[in-house]
């Protein structure tokens, strides 16, 4: 069995550790001056070099032929030739004990460690304990480790590694010298992959390595693991962008852009057809949603003026995102970001994984039909050239004649058209409310669950003079929220969340209406209205085909 690349090419000295120069140089200078801590804490994302740095540090502390002197730029490097260095590289050094806290997390394991700590090193100068995923220790185990961390024997050094430092007891952190590892940038990962491929004598395209780097979440180990997978599947064929995309099951940016365009345009049928295609290709829906969130995040940052250097994008991708960002309003992007973030949690536990995204597509399609002028992107306005007034007139003129009969029905229609002349500070406040909408709903929940449910079916439209205008699509929902007690609860929660006094104004969408039936035909009209106004049923019929059958 061939050795995986991230083990085969694991850095063996400080100079080979890429992307963490600030940490490695600080450690080398401290070692050269003899300032050796009794406990270190290495924290940071997975695959960024924490355990590798811990092993190299262990080599330096026990190396028999250290390279470098105090006056050198990088004074302390292991020789990688002496018995101690070779044994550490092979994992056979008696005085280097590596403990996985995820599987040895109890107080009994820590007591056993404390009993063995008192024994001096067998062959080396220092006895070193590397405790990986230290945040997984139980509270009792962490407390048991405290005293040993505070006053260990002079020949014992602890190196704690974690991906979640916030879960570690503050008293443990305070007894360690802490180093925070950062994610690697795409150019750094590409450079590392180039070195590996050259040693493996494999041809490659630079675009292929960029694809791998962008899929590794800033981790060298993940990037090298993906590369190992590709090499095992490609049988040393040239590594191209197309090969990487096909064999790793990646989704092209243009594909993500199209499905986002369909969602924002309310094109439910196109979204659902694309989901079927993804499922047939074996692409997980959670992965798709994560990529859509990443895509929207980049669009949002570009609209906020963030430059290419901070986005970790190549020039070609940056131009693509720059073009797409000009087609949408910030509120459209933040609104869809919020919706996708919400359904991502539901998708992981849904019986049918595509259902939450299908429901979102249908919901947005309904909203588009209720208010075609709402949330219109610049792309739609350019292509269709439709004004809000034209859509409003068309909607009223094409309504069923029976429902509009004045002898039988009293009808109220409130058209939401309050988005003009919005101040810049009010627009910022609306964006802040959209971003904090989930926290707002959670704040309402303890007071009244039914109010929370009704608010979930509403949509923040605009803020004017510290008043949030909420759009509802059914009169019952609007009237329920307009109840004095309901308004008091909502306004208090919103004001507390934003740190300023806020008021609520409820509005109906274009199709929002209150219908009152009179006369002998009331039952027939009500039955007709039930079918006509069931927008979800209409949309599902349009998407999947079929007809409505009455029992």
TrEMBL record:
Stored InterPro entries: AAA+_ATPase, DNA_pol3_clamp-load_cplx_C, DNA_pol_III_gamma-3, DNA_pol_III_sug/sutau_N, DNA_Rep/Repair_Clamp_Loader, DnaX-like_C, HLD_clamp_pol_III_gamma_tau, P-loop_NTPase
> Which GO CC terms are listed, alphabetically?
DNA polymerase III complex
Q: Which GO terms describe its biological process?
A: DNA-templated DNA replication
Q: Which UniProt keywords apply?
A: ATP-binding, DNA replication, DNA-directed DNA polymerase, Metal-binding, Nucleotide-binding, Nucleotidyltransferase, Transferase, Zinc
Write down the Gene3D superfamilies for this protein, in alphabetical order: 1.10.8.60, 1.20.272.10, P-loop containing nucleotide triphosphate hydrolases (3.40.50.300)
Give the AAA+ ATPase domain ranges. Answer: 36-194
Q: Which family does it belong to?
A: Belongs to the DnaX/STICHEL family.
- Report quaternary structure and partners: DNA polymerase III contains a core (composed of alpha, epsilon and theta chains) that associates with a tau subunit. This core dimerizes to form the POLIII' complex. PolIII' associates with the gamma complex (composed of gamma, delta, delta', psi and chi chains) and with the beta chain to form the complete DNA polymerase III complex.
Q: Tell me which PANTHER family the record gives.
A: PROTEIN STICHEL-LIKE 2 (PTHR11669:SF0), REPLICATION FACTOR C / DNA POLYMERASE III GAMMA-TAU SUBUNIT (PTHR11669)
What's this protein's name?
A: DNA polymerase III subunit gamma/tau
């Amino acid at each position: 069995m061939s050795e995986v690349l991230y083990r085969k090419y694991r850095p063996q000295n400080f100079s080979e550790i890429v992307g963490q120069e600030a940490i490695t140089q600080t450690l080398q200078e401290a070692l050269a001056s003899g300032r050796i801590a009794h406990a270190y804490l290495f924290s940071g994302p997975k695959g960024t070099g924490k355990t590798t740095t811990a092993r190299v540090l262990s080599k330096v502390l026990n190396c028999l032929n250290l390279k470098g002197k105090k006056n050198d730029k990088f004074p302390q490097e292991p020789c990688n030739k002496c018995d101690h260095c070779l044994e550490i590289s092979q994992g056979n050094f008696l005085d280097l004990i590596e403990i996985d806290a995820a599987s040895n997390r109890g107080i009994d394991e820590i007591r056993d460690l404390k009993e063995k700590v008192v024994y001096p090193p067998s062959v080396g100068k220092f006895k070193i304990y590397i405790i990986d995923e230290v945040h997984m220790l139980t509270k009792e185990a962490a407390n048991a480790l405290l005293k040993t961390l505070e006053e260990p024997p002079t020949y014992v050094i602890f190196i704690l590694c974690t991906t979640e430092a916030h879960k570690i007891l503050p008293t443990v952190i305070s007894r360690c010298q802490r180093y925070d590892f950062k994610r690697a940038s795409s150019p750094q990962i590409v450079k590392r992959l180039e070195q590996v491929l050259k040693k493996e004598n494999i041809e490659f395209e630079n675009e292929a390595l960029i694809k791998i780097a962008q899929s590794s979440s800033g981790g060298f180990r993940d990037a090298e693991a993906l590369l190992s997978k590709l090499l095992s599947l490609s049988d040393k064929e040239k590594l191209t962008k197309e090969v990487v995309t096909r064999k790793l099951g990646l989704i092209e940016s243009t594909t993500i852009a199209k499905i986002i365009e369909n969602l924002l345009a309310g094109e439910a049928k196109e979204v659902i057809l694309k989901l079927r295609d993804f499922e047939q290709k074996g692409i997980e829906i959670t992965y798709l949603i994560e990529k859509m969130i990443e895509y929207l995040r980049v669009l949002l940052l570009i609209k906020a003026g963030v430059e290419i250097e901070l986005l970790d994008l190549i020039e070609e991708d940056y131009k693509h995102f720059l073009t797409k960002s000009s087609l949408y309003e910030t509120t459209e992007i933040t609104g869809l970001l919020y919706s996708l973030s919400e359904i991502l949690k539901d998708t992981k536990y849904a019986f049918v994984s595509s259902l939450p995204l299908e429901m979102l597509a249908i919901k947005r399609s309904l909203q588009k039909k209720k208010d075609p002028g709402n949330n219109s992107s610049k792309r739609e306005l350019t292509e269709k050239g439709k004004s809000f007034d034209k859509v409003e007139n068309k909607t009223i003129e094409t309504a069923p004649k029976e429902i509009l009969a004045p002898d039988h029905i009293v009808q109220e229609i409130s058209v939401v058209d309050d988005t003009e002349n919005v101040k810049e500070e009010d627009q910022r406040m609306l964006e802040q409310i959209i971003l904090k909408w989930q926290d707002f709903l959670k704040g309402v929940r303890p007071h009244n669950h039914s109010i929370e449910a009704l608010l979930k079916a509403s949509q923040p439209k605009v803020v004017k003079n510290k008043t949030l205008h909420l759009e509802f699509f059914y009169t019952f929902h609007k009237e329920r929220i307009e109840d004095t007690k309901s308004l008091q609860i909502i306004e208090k929660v919103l004001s507390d969340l934003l740190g300023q006094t806020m008021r609520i104004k409820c509005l109906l969408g274009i199709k929002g209406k209150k219908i009152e039936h009179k006369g002998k035909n009331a039952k027939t009209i009500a039955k007709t209205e039930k079918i006509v106004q069931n927008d979800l049923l209409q949309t599902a019929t349009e998407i999947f085909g079929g007809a409505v059958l009455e029992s």
